[in-house]
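Technical note accompanying the year-one report. For the benefit of new consortium partners, we illustrate the data format agreed upon in the data management plan: each record pairs a sequence with a structure-token string. No post-processing was applied to the example shown here.
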Amino acid sequence: MARRNTRKDRPHERTTVEDNRFDVSLSPCIPLPPATGILAHIHHLRDRPRAEYPVIQGSVHTPHPPPLRNHLRTVLRRSPLFRGLDDKLIDSILAQGTQRAWAKGEALESPFFSNEFCVLAQGRAQVVGSVGQNDKRFVLFVLGAGDGYDFVPLLDGHPHETHLECLEETLAVSFSLDLMRHWLQDNPDLNRNFLPYLGECMRTLEALATDLAMHDTLTRLARLILRHLDQEAAKELDGTVPVRLIHDLTHERLAQMIGSVRQVVNRHLRQLHRAGIAENQEGSLFVHDLEALKAIAEGVHRRLGNHRHVD
């Protein structure tokens, strides 16, 4: 198994206030709209000498150029955490945030999130728990733009036994935990957004626990797909429903989300394809028969035949 890429592996790309450097491990391939200005800014960050960056006490700060600032403002406005907040408050929050960018495959360990709360602005990342000498893994969540991480140290102040892995080039804005707590305490609107979002995360964990304890792998896979359907996009596709966030994940990664193995997930996806329920089109997963998928998620598998495997 490949060695996990951590901050210690590339000390020249990780930065601290003490050594007067910045987190500029930025990929030139992050597709942020509008692309020209933002990509130029990312190239500019990569090329500038580290000594040129300003340091703000207790934090690392990179001024956001107008295209990137507008993109970040849009992400926060649409985020379930910050939706509905006054524009002046959103601008104030952004002004106190730190721009972070991570490469595809990069893993961020618990110590980083013991001090920082991040909101993803572009890309996807998965929240992974791993135990044992064989590095057995289970994926708890897949996060996209507007999602926040990590709530556990934000709430109780203790490290969390998970880490974040970037599924693609990922851009985020981070804030100190103390600053997030201050905003939650002083802004009722932010607090009202925070509690339902946290409740949704708890529901997802509850569903995972129920799936693992009560259902076979085919049912777990169907329920996983249902949780990630893009219902809004389905209105424009004549009943075909695209899958979001997990649409192009490998069978190995999907298996890690339902407590199974790659071979089993591969077999079940082929069953769904033969039954006309779901299909992989040009690298993305689509659902053609939503009612049949819901029936499988409830434990009814008649459409897949009488000789299916139960795992």
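Partners are asked to follow this layout when depositing records. Confidence is low (pLDDT under 50) at residues 1-63, 306-310.
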